[in-house]
Amino acid sequence: MENPTLIISFRNADIVNGETKVIYGLNMDIYKGDFVYIVGKVGTGKTSIIRTMIAENPLTKGKGSVCGYDLQNIKEKEIPYLRRKLGVVFQDFQLLMDRNVEENLRFVLKATGWKDETAISQRISMVLRAVGMELKAHKMPHQLSGGEQQRVAIARSLLNDPQVIIADEPTGNLDNETADGIMRLLTGINREKGTAIVMVTHNRQIFEKYPGRVMICKDETCTEQQADEVIDLELTI
Fold first, then answer.
1. Structural contact between residues 88 and 54, judged by C-beta atoms closer than 8 angstroms
2. Structural domain boundaries in the chain
3. How many CA atoms lie within 13 A of 183 on its CB side?
4. What share of the chain is helix, strand, coil (3-state, %, to 5)?
5. For position 12, what pLDDT does the model report?
6. What is the pLDDT of residues 181-203, one digit of tens each?
């Protein structure tokens, strides 16, 4: 069996939120095809890890690489190229409300260097079909349900065929049934395309129903769940 492709790696990395260190000595390896949850109480550094992965937060101590980019030494001009290799999905969708679904996706492709209009249209159709939204391309975001908006956000994350999708509480604003549909979609993408998924969540039902590797943030550390380790998520929001 060939060696799995390493996509994200941290070694003895300190994770910051602004000026404050929130996690010390992070060690984490994520490979092609992995589905990894980052869980923990509010304020334990989950989202700060995500922000470090996308080079929004600086990595000042330890080592970190994402999709071949060295996070300690990444240059400002390289950050957009790193982010093209990532798909990022947010809790609040972050769609542009003044343009329809197709134009939201077209905007991202143009911003990431696509120029051929035929290729752009084909790619938009492909990703919308993948998330079951091909008939809603003409709709404005406010005409869609929360679950439909999140499906569009996932379609947006797929546009540049990312090596990994990073999802920050993607089901946080959705009811249980809709959240279930989003999880089936993400696990399907993971299984069928081998796209790694890194997902921040505080929803125990989700990571118990859709198993994956679980990284637990607590006491200024983030470590992989050990067999029979109990995860305390009380007092989350």
1. yes
2. 96-161
3. 26
4. 35, 25, 40
5. 97
6. 999 999 999 999 999 999 999 88
